[in-house]
Specification:
This protein is mainly alpha-helical. It folds into two domains: 3-79, Helicase, Ruva Protein, domain 3, CATH 1.10.8.60; 90-272, Methane Monooxygenase Hydroxylase, Chain G, domain 1 (Up-down Bundle). It is 60% helix and 6% strand. It has helices spanning 3-17, 29-38, 44-60, 68-79, 90-110, 144-165, 173-188, 210-215, 218-241, 243-256, 262-272, 283-289, and strands at residues 114-120, 130-135, 258-260. It has a three-stranded antiparallel sheet, with helices on one face. Helix 7 packs across helix 9 (218-241). It is globular.
Length: 290
């Protein structure tokens, strides 16, 4: 996001925040800058509606002022949907937590330009769980390595299931759809897979989008499959090395159902850099030795 665009977004946000009862944490300039980045592209009406929804979340928990958590919940409601009270079996719950933990671990390892916003095993719309992540800054273009990184993040759930349970279930279907779409665009639109031919320039009856066009040829399917399998292999090695991080995120989700922003990063960092355990000194041995 440019400085001018950020300044405009921040001024609109400040205007509407001034009309609400706020927790003191939302007076922090850094928090407001983060929120301005998160709502870049929102119209003033959308921002006002978001804050109205956040106030509803605050009232539901008996508070008289909205806080950062209320805004996060309101944003998820607006963009993803309301929480749906469903009862998972114990195995389903553990599988979903492992799946989402796999996504988050890969996102942390490969998504250096991304921020982790929400990690959840609460059902919303068609999603049994989710990892919401976004660019650190508003972006309009992506490099090849960044697209490959997004494909690897999509593969994280399937690979985590295979790693911890020996096989994957039906959960990765949406992930594979997103990964296939990205890979097909690399092959047929973006010149990122060895061919400079643009399928967007072709008029193929019955194939109205680049994914259908790429997958309608053996060479296109082979190229997409190669990208997907390479990504899955890389993620397999990644999660095998960082199995303890997946387990830590899984356990945190099983305990709390949902992690927001810094909470996700805190669990990852603690798992990757555990505090050094200091053994108590045995004074009797020390005395005897002296």
């Amino acid at each position: 996001m440019s400085r001018l665009a950020h300044a405009c977004a921040r001024s609109v946000l400040d205007y509407y925040l001034a009309k609400k009862a706020l927790h003191v944490e939302l007076d922090d300039a850094t928090r407001r800058d983060t929120l301005a980045s998160m709502t870049f592209g929102y119209s003033p009406v959308m921002i006002e509606h978001l804050l109205d929804e956040a106030l509803v979340w605050a009232l539901r928990r008996g508070a008289d002022a909205l806080d950062w958590h209320d805004i996060q919940q309101a944003k998820m409601t607006e963009e993803i949907g309301l929480k749906q009270p469903v009862e998972y079996t114990d195995l389903e719950r553990r599988t979903i937590a492992t799946h989402e933990a796999g996504h988050a671990t890969v996102a942390h390892l490969v998504g250096k330009d991304r921020k982790l916003e929400v990690l959840s095993i609460i059902k919303r719309k068609d999603a049994l769980g989710l990892l919401a992540h976004s660019d650190l800054e508003e972006r309009f273009t992506k490099t090849r390595s960044e697209i490959v990184g997004l494909i690897q993040i999509a593969m994280g759930g399937m690979v985590a299931e295979e790693l911890f349970f020996g096989e994957a279930g039906t959960g990765p279907s949406g992930d594979l759809q997103a990964a296939t779409t990205a890979a097909a665009q690399m092959v047929g639109s973006l010149g990122m897979a060895g061919s400079l031919i643009s399928y967007d320039a072709m008029a193929v009856a019955g194939a109205q989008n680049v994914v259908a066009k790429v997958l309608s040829t053996d060479s296109g399917k082979d190229a997409v499959d190669r990208i997907l399998n390479d990504a899955k292999s890389a993620v397999g090695a990644m999660l095998d090395t960082h199995r303890h991080v997946v387990a830590a995120l899984r356990d945190a989700l099983l305990e709390r159902d949902e992690l927001l922003g810094d909470d996700i990063t805190a669990v990852i960092e603690e798992a990757m850099h555990p505090a050094e355990i200091v053994m108590p000194r045995d004074e009797s041995v020390e005395t005897a030795a002296s």
